[in-house]
Amino acid sequence: MFTAWLQATSAHDGKLAAIYARRFTPDYRTAFFAWLKTSPLTNPSSPPGPVYMRQYHNPSLLAAARLNDRASAAFVQGTSAGDTAGRYVRDTVLFAGVLFLVAVDQRFKLRNIRYATTALAFALLVFTTVSVAQLPRI
């Protein structure tokens, strides 16, 4: 709209320029009229446009900042949930390892190897149980 206003003004079409000025959003219109008071068409030291005026406040920027904060919080929460899911999967695999060791242990004929395999399976079971107990509950 501002570019169209500039074109209408440079073409000396005041009626069309006024139509464009009426269609500015309220927050932009305030900055626009403040910018016009600086005589921008004749004063080279005036700001390049209404958005450079201190009166201009873009409400979408504030909403974007709020949404960005919410997105950051959701990302942190998602990352934490992903880490927790990975730990649950790891513990599931370790429990499967316990079952595997118990099944394999029955195939050995030497008692010492069976005792060692059973002890290893029990140690893995204790470690995994403690690990699961420390996980957050869903």
Fold blueprint:
Blueprint: H1 2-10, H2 14-22, H3 26-36, H4 59-105, H5 111-133
Helix pairs in contact: 1-2, 4-5
Short summary:
With 138 residues, the chain is mostly helical.
Give an overview in words.
By secondary structure, this protein is mostly helical. It folds into 2 domains: 2-52, no CATH class; 81-133. 72% of the residues lie in helices and 0% in strands. It has helices at residues 2-10, 14-22, 26-36, 59-105, 111-133. The longest helix has 47 residues, at 59-105. The chain starts with a helix and ends in a 5-residue tail after the last helix.
Keywords:
138 residues, mainly alpha, 2 domains, 5 helices, 72% helix, 0% strand, rod-shaped
Radius of gyration: 35 Å
What is the overall number of helices? 5
User: Uncertain segments of ≥5 residues (pLDDT<50)?
Assistant: none
The global form is rod-shaped
Number of discrete domains: 2
Largest sheet: none
Label the structural class.
mainly alpha
Q: Please provide the count of β strands.
A: 0
| Chain-averaged pLDDT | 92
Which range best describes the helical content: under 10%, 10-25%, 25-40%, 40-55%, 55-70% or over 70%? over 70%
Order of H and E elements:
HHHHH
- Strand-residue fraction? under 5%
Please report the distance between the alpha carbons of the first and last residues.
Answer: 52 Å
